[in-house]
Design goal:
By secondary structure, the chain is α/β, with parallel strands linked by helices. The protein is 46% helix and 17% strand.
């Protein structure tokens, strides 16, 4: 199976060919601008010291400061971080945000950390990458294994060093520290907007349409809530330990999960990840990790529409099968862009010290998502390419144009 970086580079290569860009463009677009690996020492609560690897990749800063999440996950490495930072670059360009793309993280299982250990690790990581982040340079955000608490510690560590509060250094912060209304649910809200629009394109009435979601975290949960509120039926969800079906509504399951840290709600049935992926539903939402849909399981997928909440959940082999089976795939850089869009709103509000209402956030999110959605749909139709190819073409073309207009220094 190809690595995440090989997949991302192949997608870029394809976009460069479709756009008929030059070999010079390929060289410029396929090279990450800044890569930093740091050692992050952690004093455990028992006094032992452990060393962790931390990463920050600024793939592009051509259209503005770089922007991207911080992931705490045991398997993260530099190649995967480069791949995810590359995807962020095309995502920000596709949605026309004034940002480049970045990603970062620590190779650690966040579940093994106490709260105090998590705070020490986050603060030390922030201090190690401090010289290259900042509201005008690179703005981290939450990703897998991190949340608004980590962002509060990052903001505080940066601010203590600056000597004054710098809320704009990270997004996805708690509201009282300069976070934005609507940020917590933004990625899931955007996934829901994408699902509704994709169903309409397929001629399926969203009311009563059925949905299965892999991953019940920040993206999966909020997507489930948004879709349920819009009248769709969430029939199954899964987390790292497996899936569940037969619950009455999403919040009933969520409340059980919060109280018990598992999805074993009495009266429901278990199912495996593979069973969930192969359910006969209208919408399948992979919202966990990369490589969920591969050439091994794609042919059994019966969903009419796949909305990629996760980053890079489909391998090229899986993608080819889905395309051959006429399953509409709303690609990650469009489907999960709600998070970075509202992160952008948060950054704008922090810069202006003026905060928006929840309705303003929602309506501006909707406007940008719908504009991007229509652009991708039109590109796919006119160029006769998949939605993934269309989305990459739009994002890559904007970055290539920015490179051309800025020129090459010296
Ligand atoms: P999270 O840590 O909040 O949730 C991840 C969920 O996936 C959890 O329910 C976890 O149990 C589950 N999971 C982990 N491994 C799994 C496996 N092997 N099989 C099935 N489920 C598994 O993370 P998140 O923020 O919801 O991010 C999920 C995905 O969405 C990631 O790919 C992330 O990069 C992407 N994403 C997140 C955001 C955001 O705003 N949080 C924005 C854009 C994209």
């Amino acid at each position: 199976m190809e690595s995440a970086l090989e997949t991302a580079r192949a997608q870029l290569r394809r976009a460069v060919e479709l756009l008929e860009l030059t070999e010079n463009d390929w060289q410029t677009l396929s090279t990450p601008r800044r890569i930093l690996e740091v050692a992050v020492p952690l004093r455990r609560d028992n006094g032992n010291v452990e060393m962790y690897k931390g990463f920050r990749v600024q793939y592009s800063t051509t259209r503005g400061p770089s922007k991207g999440g911080v992931r705490f996950h045991p398997t993260i490495d530099m190649d995967e971080t480069v791949a995810l930072a590359m995807l962020m670059t095309w995502k920000c360009a596709l949605t026309n945000l004034p940002y480049g793309g970045a990603k970062g993280g620590i190779a650690v299982d966040a579940h093994t950390l106490s709260l105090a250990e998590n705070e020490r690790l986050t603060r030390r990581y922030t201090s190690e990458i401090l010289p290259i982040i900042g509201p005008e340079r690179d703005i981290p955000a939450p990703d897998v294994g991190t949340d608004e608490r980590n962002m509060a510690w990052m903001m505080d560590t940066y601010s203590v060093n600056a000597g004054f509060a710098v809320p704009g250094v990270v997004t996805g912060k708690p509201i009282v520290l300069g976070g934005s209304l609507g940020r917590t649910s933004a990625t899931g809200d955007g996934v829901a907007i994408s699902a509704i629009e994709a169903l309409l394109v397929k001629g399926i009435d969203p009311k009563g349409a059925t949905v299965a979601i892999q991953g019940f975290g920040k993206v999966g949960y909020w997507a489930a809530i948004a879709l349920e509120n819009l009248g769709l039926k969430i029939v199954a969800v899964s987390d790292v330990n497996g899936g569940v079906t037969g619950f009455k509504n999403v919040n009933e399951l969520w409340n059980h999960f919060l109280a018990n840290n598992n999805l074993n709600l009495p009266g429901t049935d278990k199912l495996t990840q593979e069973e969930l992926i192969h359910l006969d539903v209208d919408v399948l939402i992979p919202a966990a990790l990369a490589d969920a849909i591969t050439e091994k399981n794609a042919s059994g997928i019966r969903a009419k529409v796949i909305v990629e909440g996760a980053n890079a959940p489909t391998t090229p082999g899986g993608d080819a099968i889905l395309n051959a089976n006429h399953i509409l795939v709303v690609p990650d850089i469009l489907a999960n862009s709600g998070g970075v869009i509202v992160s952008y709103f948060e950054w704008v509000q922090d810069k202006q010290n003026y905060f928006w209402t929840a309705d303003e956030v929602k309506s501006n999110l909707n406007e940008i998502m719908m504009r991007s959605f229509r652009e991708v749909e039109e590109m796919a139709r006119t160029k006769k390419v998949s939605w993934r190819e269309a989305a990459h073409m739009i994002g890559v073309a904007r970055v290539a144009e920015a490179h051309r207009l800025r020129g090459l220094y010296p």
